[in-house]
Design goal:
about 200 residues, 3 helices, rod-shaped
């Protein structure tokens, strides 16, 4: 419940100024997040298309060779290196590179194409690693966008209208009190003049 006093009126006016000053910043952050999410989604789609094309070329290349060799044992993923980027105040992972273990194979007992096959599989793992990092970026940005949108809605649809209503209500009450005081003063003055005459 709002107190109907001058101090409360000042407090409500200060709150309204603060809300109106903070709202454009939130709206700008929301727009920036939406733009960045679209960019990352486009980057993800382009990388996914490149991966599909690479996979198609790889499948054609593999079909030429009829030998049954499992290359996965030679790929040896070590780790995915990422750095930290900052978008609109949120830290997101940024793909740097994929590192592989130094695996060796017997050059005399494996076919000649194993070297290129391992390089091709490693390229697929790099694509997948970068895609995972982009998906994590989208996830983090979408969560922040959801939170920011909730805050924008809170200010636009709840706090600012509520504060304006409180100010209007207090002003009406104080105006009524001032009018009543003036009326009481006039009545008292009239009573005093009647008693004096």
């Amino acid at each position: 419940m709002v107190k109907l006093t001058k101090n409360e009126l000042k407090k409500q006016k200060d709150s309204l100024k603060r809300f109106q000053r903070y709202l454009p910043t939130l709206q700008l952050k929301k727009q920036q997040l939406q733009m960045v999410i679209r960019q990352v989604e486009q980057q993800h789609a382009e990388l996914q298309a490149r991966r599909v094309e690479w996979r198609r070329e790889l499948d054609e290349w593999v079909s030429v060779f009829g030998e049954k060799i499992t290359l996965v044992q030679y790929v040896g993923l070590d780790r995915i290196e990422t750095s930290v980027g900052n978008i609109a105040g949120i830290d997101i992972p940024v793909y740097e590179r994929t590192l592989f273990q130094d695996t060796r194979w017997d050059l005399f007992s494996t076919p000649l194409w194993v070297d290129e096959g391992v390089a091709a599989l490693r390229k697929m793992v790099e694509f997948d690693s970068e895609l995972r990092v982009l998906e994590r970026q989208i996830e983090l940005l979408a969560e922040e966008l959801r939170t920011t949108t909730q805050r924008v809605n809170l200010f636009e649809k709840v706090k600012i209208p509520e504060t304006k209503d409180n100010i209007r209500m207090i002003q009406i009450y104080l105006g009524d009190q001032q009018t009543a005081a003036v009326v009481r003063g006039k009545i008292s003055k009239r009573n005093l003049t009647r008693q004096a005459s």
